[in-house]
């Protein structure tokens, strides 16, 4: 496939493959049969399967994963912005860049590597990229699959500039669900949120859980470290843990907007839910030499056990 020996020899326990556009993908596996597939295009996770080889992530049938654009689905990274504003690409540009395998990552605590199948990626700005976002950064990403099948992400962004810069951030996780009307999210009750359907009007969550009967596009603020996405149809729960990510974005486009989206099937909104651990309300500012870390951990458990994990 034309990749260097250094890449192929890296993380010998992992497999390597290519997508239809020739992008390198790293396949993480654990002994119990779970797996995850990570693309160097965007550092995007394309697949996450449990021990029964069931897919846990949604990917649109109309998604086109062709540089320079990222496709809709999987788990995608938004940096250095959230949403569509200014001259930068929507949700930032790192999801549209080709990352490199990081063969000499700085050491992490043993709990972040022991017993895990993982890959380290790195992204630095190109000369072209510096023209539209003139800040020198070093972005290191570790994606790890644990022995219990949980999937974790460690993002470390360092300012190697001569001046401070600020950014927003999000891990956009698209979960595959039985039917959106059968899903509820617990852990957001009593929180304030910004409603993107009402020009970011600030409201307070009144229900004991968030359920879905129409389009939802909200940014929940000051969230707890763990929330649960309970899928009654599949009788399973996604437990989402965040560190360094105070906000949680919840999105489902529903019927009308789905029909207007080129990269989403008309009825596919029923099987997807996007939940993003994020930094939206208060940007992160890094002085020269400073580093920020944002961690996401996803675990799947039978729904009857969800309360134990919260």
TrEMBL record:
It comes from the Eukaryota. Gene3D superfamilies: 2.70.98.10. It is an enzyme of class 5 (isomerase). Keywords: Isomerase. The keyword Isomerase applies. One of its GO terms (biological process) is carbohydrate metabolic process. One of its GO terms (molecular function) is carbohydrate binding. It catalyses: alpha-D-glucose 6-phosphate = beta-D-glucose 6-phosphate. Belongs to the glucose-6-phosphate 1-epimerase family. This is glucose-6-phosphate 1-epimerase. It comes from Carnegiea gigantea.
